[in-house]
Specification:
Length: 360
């Protein structure tokens, strides 16, 4: 119906551009939509190929975009058709999609939330079959766990390095057993309300987090060796507070700069809020002690990866206006500015760094 309405506008001569978003499972070329460049040639260097071939410019000239066109370009240029349609949505006047792309947590269209340069007005949202929205929204924000989902995860263990497979399989066994032990003795076929103890689930979560940490850190040395070789320009993305932003050093010119994207505020939870109330009551600085100071400790650690000795030289870019607010700036090292943190504000810092390097 939505596509038909747009076609009627276009038939009258309207220049409106439309795009229909197709689910990843339906548009993906692979048997399973595992978006890992190591396993999917369409995900590998996707954005590089999109830019090099000017695919978004080609799509912007079409009045109606559908799965057929995205799949055609995906096959021809070996790019991901699902990601291509999301990128092309920015230039569309009308986007037709499922509720999921707008209302689900971490929705795919989160990248389009901000207003772009030159945009006039605000987008309008038309919800068809709105009576279905409450139940869909409850599903989005109601987490669930099932042994079926865990068994499905077991089938995907072959995608991880062999040295981790046995441990991962045992963890899945333990998780399934934890769920089974929560079943009531007299199970009602229509469904039963249960009140499971939290400790078994918390214990399993701790084990899973430990496993994931070891798994994610397993390739640290490989990344460091790549940086030591300096065989090609490399941009590395890392999490503030993680191993690459705190746990390792980069001597010499292994890295020449760091972009610190925002103060990494701690998670909002009961424990953190109790801490905030305590420091507010005793020192009138609850937010500073509970949130700002821990965040700046991680931000300064990340920035400190660049300069590790008196001979190191590099650039540190703090990407967030909050860094010059007093709650955050008072945690900066004393030698970062002379009088006020506003001295750090710059509109040409990269140009300045390049100019300084050329003078030397």
């Amino acid at each position: 119906m939505a596509e038909d309405a747009v076609e009627r506008f276009q038939d009258t001569g309207s220049a409106v551009r439309s795009l229909t978003v197709t689910a990843k499972s339906k548009i993906c070329f692979k048997n399973e939509p595992i978006c890992n460049p190591e396993h999917c040639e369409y995900a590998r260097d996707h954005y590089t190929k999109v830019h090099a071939e000017g695919l978004l410019e080609k799509l912007s000239k079409k009045k109606k975009l559908s799965a057929k066109q995205f799949r055609k370009l995906g096959e021809e240029f070996e790019v991901c058709p699902f990601e291509l349609q999301l990128d092309a949505a920015r230039d569309a006047d009308v986007v037709i999609c499922d509720y999921n792309y707008v209302f689900a947590p971490h929705s795919a269209f989160g990248r389009l939330a901000s207003t772009t340069i030159g945009q006039e007005g605000k987008p309008n949202l038309v919800i068809d079959e709105a009576h279905n929205l409450p139940s869909r929204a409850m599903d989005y924000y109601s987490p669930s766990l099932s042994s079926y989902s865990l068994e499905f995860m077991r089938k995907r263990l072959e995608d991880i390095p062999s040295r981790f497979r046995q441990e991962a399989s045992l963890l899945i066994d333990d998780c399934i057993q934890t769920i089974i032990e929560c079943r009531p003795e007299n199970l009602d076929p229509k469904g039963s309300v249960i009140d499971p103890p939290s400790h078994p689930f918390m214990d399993q979560e701790e084990k899973l987090r430990g496993f994931l940490s070891r798994y994610l850190e397993s390739d640290v040395e490989g990344v460091l060796e790549h940086l030591r070789e300096r065989s090609m320009p490399t941009m590395m993305f890392a999490v503030q507070g993680g191993v690459f932003s705190e746990g390792v050093d980069y001597p010499g010119e292994m890295i020449i700069g760091a972009f610190v994207v925002g103060p990494p505020l701690p998670s909002f939870d009961l424990e953190r809020e109790r801490m905030r109330r305590y420091y507010e009551e005793h020192y009138k600085a609850g937010f500073d002690y509970a949130y700002a100071f821990p965040a700046m400790a991680k931000a300064v650690q990340a920035a400190g990866r660049v300069i590790r000795s008196e001979t190191d030289r590099g650039i540190i870019v703090l990407l967030d206006g909050r860094f010059i607010q007093s709650s955050y700036s008072k945690s900066m090292p004393a030698d970062w500015f002379e009088r006020a943190p506003t001295e750090l504000v710059s509109r040409g810092i990269c140009l300045l760094y390049t100019s300084d390097a050329a003078d030397e």
